[in-house]
Amino acid sequence: MDRKEIEELRERVSCVAVLETAGFAIDAKESTRRAVKYRRASEIVILTHEGQGWFDPLGDAKGDVFALVSHLESVGFPQALEHVASLSGFRSASPVWQTGPKKVAIVPVFQRWLARSSPAPASGVWRYLKRDRCLPVDILRQAIRQNLLREGPSDSMWAAHTDDTGTVTGWEERGPDWRGFSSGGTKVLFRFGAAAGLRICVTEAAIDALSLAAIEGLRDGTIYLSTGGGWSPNTETSLRHLLRQPSAQLIAATDANSQGETFADRLRALTDELDRDWLRLRPTADDWNEVLKQRGG
After folding, report:
1. Residues 77-95: pLDDT tens digits?
2. Residues with Cβ within 8 Å of residue 217, at least 6 apart in sequence
3. How far apart are CA 190 and CA 181, in angstroms?
4. Element (H, E) at 66
């Protein structure tokens, strides 16, 4: 098969075909137009570019349809090519979005962040966070003082991810009808609380980090983090930086489900490598925001 035929095959066969024939199922609740999540037991693959690209949120693997087959089946390119060719007539039954939003010019991440206002009482985002998510006013005000929140479109919250210098690299987007991550942004860490805190609580979403802080009363010496549901090399580098002090303790406060346990295991492996204290803090509901809502805020 020559290069032209390989390129035609890459365009013709979606990653959806590979996942569905491998026993993965779409997680509609956790999917967005730009990122469609598939699960198989504890394994997760997220499709991008309308099914032509993918990445593993629990690792560093990503690529095209051939790389996906190689990743799942642990085979080389020739075997992956043969497998993809066998799927050239496959038709998906999954409700994957067929068309994406119109392309727009991408303004640099930090400029887009600065152009947005902080949430204000009586605004749509404020109501969403206080009423729908039960976040206390004092927690919201503290997060705003730390320059962590912005008002996004359609009453959605933007929660900043920053690098070790404090530079905004992107943001989690959460709203009544939308969830995602900033276009062109980079997941590192959402950081709330004591910047130099030695008690380091890691959650999977900014709203969960804020919820846990509310439940604990914004505990002294604690920094509440969110990975945004991913684990990039930048995330790991920042966690290593935060754990540089021998007295640092890492709290794996991830969700009470298979994905949360996988994240917790990875966090424990990191602390074992660095010889740091580790603790699993498991929510009594699926996540910390559910716990907060059950308590009435």
Report:
1. 888 888 888 776 544 455 4
2. none
3. 12
4. helix 65-73
